[in-house]
Amino acid sequence: MLRARSRTRGGFTLIELLVVISIIAVLIALLLPAVQSAREAARRAQCSNNMKQIGLAVMNFEGTYSKMPPDIDLLATADPNAVVTSYGKGFWRASNWTLLLPYLEQSNVYNSMNLTVSALNPVNLPPSLNGVSGFGLGTNPTSYSVMINAYICPSSPAPAVINYYNECWGPEGYGKVSNSASPPQQMWGRTDYIAVPGLDGTVLAVGGFSTAYQNAARGDSGTICAASQGVRIASILDGTSNTLMVAEDSARPVGYNGKRQVYSSGGKPVDGVLNGAPGGGGAWGDPYTYAHLDGAQGRDNGRRGGTCMVNCTSDNEIYSFHPGGANILFADGSVRFLKESANVQVIVALVTRGLGEVVGSDQY
Question: What is the spatial distance between Cα 318 and Cα 295, in angstroms, rounded to a whole number?
């Protein structure tokens, strides 16, 4: 009688198992950057699409009113019930981002505001959601608190809706209260984009420009600027394809430096909630949310006022979380990627609408 031959099932040795694990780890290490790169490419494309929508909204506004949207829209007479009336703020009717809402399919949000009174009237301002009382609280929970998809870059790490109380009313904003460690929870929708009305003085002074050029370029030398400028498409003498009007300024009021790190101001991290960006702004409903570019002092401290122009500080400057540069919107509605290496002379020339500079696309 034949006996069945016993068969021993072979297994992996420890060395073989370690080799397989090592191979898998190498494959993951090779694939992960490619996956991350593909995801960032998709986010950057979405950001570019957002800006194209904003550009189309600006063109439609200009076609309707025969002028570009202003940095701040003004009332004919000051609103005595605005919570801030000093320095003409009682005249502030709406931010430039508010004016574009009907052209971004956001008429419901637009109509939820009372635009016959100031943007800083309590009927337009958000209430406190945590029961903490304070200055500047309102009764409108459905306007400024709304997230507008077209105003948010998907690469931004900051929340789309943020407790904006300290940033709005504290020293970095309208200066009516001291920053509180336990502020009222007044939620505002953010924007990762800024209208660029023109240039501040420091960047022109340290950038090597002549005195005559500084005088011409300083202030509202751009496109979306004070209503008194009466800028139209025809006013952009440098050409609409050569003049930027909107740029990324991602994550504001959270303060990031050129190393993608949250920097400190006054000895505290600029987290956007307890301590806001020194330049103010960051919420689309806040009339203060625009910026005359002034450059940064470098990539470390987050401070404005220098010749570092792209991805150096998120405090009212051109800044994104896209590797190597940031998206900018031109007055012809096109969106292009501005390299971090672009120098101050190029950026300044792109901002001004009618000073006759010549800039080649290979320079940025």
Answer: 8
